[in-house]
Amino acid sequence: MTAPNSQDAEKAVIGAILIGGTETFTKVDRSLSPDDFYNSNHQYIYQAMRDVHSDGIVPDLVTVTARLKEVKRLSGCGGASYLSGAADDCPSALNVSHYIKIVKEKSKLRKIIDGARKISESASQPGADSKTISTKLSIEIDHDAEVNQVATVIKSLNENIEKGYPGLNTGYDILARTIRKVSPGHMWIVAGYTSTGKSAFLVDFICRQYRSGLYNPGIAVFSTEMACEQYLVRMLSNQTTIAGWAITEHKMKPEQEAVLVGGQVHFSTRNLYLYDRLYKIEEIEATARMLKETSGLDIIAIDYIQNLWGEGKIYDRMSRLAPLLQYLAKDLQVTIIALSQVSNEHVKDRGNGVYGYKGAGEIAASADLGIELLRDKENDEFMTIKVEKNRHGRLGEGKLQYINGFTRIKEIIEEQPKYGG
User: Fold this and answer.
1) Across the chain, which distance is largest between two alpha carbons, in Å?
2) Largest CB tally within 10 Å, which of 4, 128, 155, 413?
3) Which tops the pLDDT comparison, 274 or 140?
4) Does the predicted TM-score (pTM) go above 0.70?
């Protein structure tokens, strides 16, 4: 008797990836592993796609064929003609979720059969205990359930405490007093009204991470507004205290030119990545996974979240994107810092608190840390930073001074900071 499987669905998944590229592969890779395929040739093909993707290359007909040839599996998998046929036979990559569902369901059925067989064999052994067998049955049947025993979590916790709990220095006194560290697995939302200084804060935060020279964290910035060169000019200005306009117009004093070169060397030797043409969450995720595997990644910065592409109106997009970013932070064990606009209604009524994000949706619920920046109405050189939500510690606020010419932010330390919560 043949085990449950669907060759058509498996081939359709392969074909969808070949015509859909990285975005489709990322969607498949969230749900399927090679052993979910019944056909061993499909397992080899899918593993080749994973290998290609981990190298930062789009898994298409040419790259996957080359990989299979390299590992001497191409002929056994049907050759290039089989891959080409899978791509030609696939109606559309848009239906890949349906194909995934079929392949996954058949895989689960096979696991249930295999688990039941193992349980039957165990129950037939002398001295078998019904209670133990029943417990094993629930585990064997659902291989997809993560067995996350408390003892394992305690061991991990103690190991982290012994070596110093992971996380980067915050760079700001107000954040050190509230969140303590920039911790992996957390998602931040830094919100503010138009032209409040959100991007300037992000630039200053990144520059502070690199300024000490004690650590070289991996930081990837995904900008949906400014070009990479504009971001770099702001960072260079922050680092060198040379006005941004003087850099772009090349109107510097001789001694400043040497300082600028030093700033360029400073950032060129840092684990820093700037992107200005990636607007889809799937593209951001694929790039982040590649960086995590190849270069190391600690922080993902998105400027800003409302500009990410997706289907539906802004509320629908934010409701979908926020939980995905939260999951990505935990899965990659990085800190995600997403800049966000606040709604006009929030500006009129500050009582809305952290729920004043534009197109709020799930943004407030997903964030581990909610920060809002407020410009001083009387002197826009100053701004207030408020930690309005903190899932893991205190709330509080501080004062910042924005030095516009250098895109640099100075923190004004108060003797008696205000806390709440």
Assistant:
1) 89
2) 4
3) 274
4) no
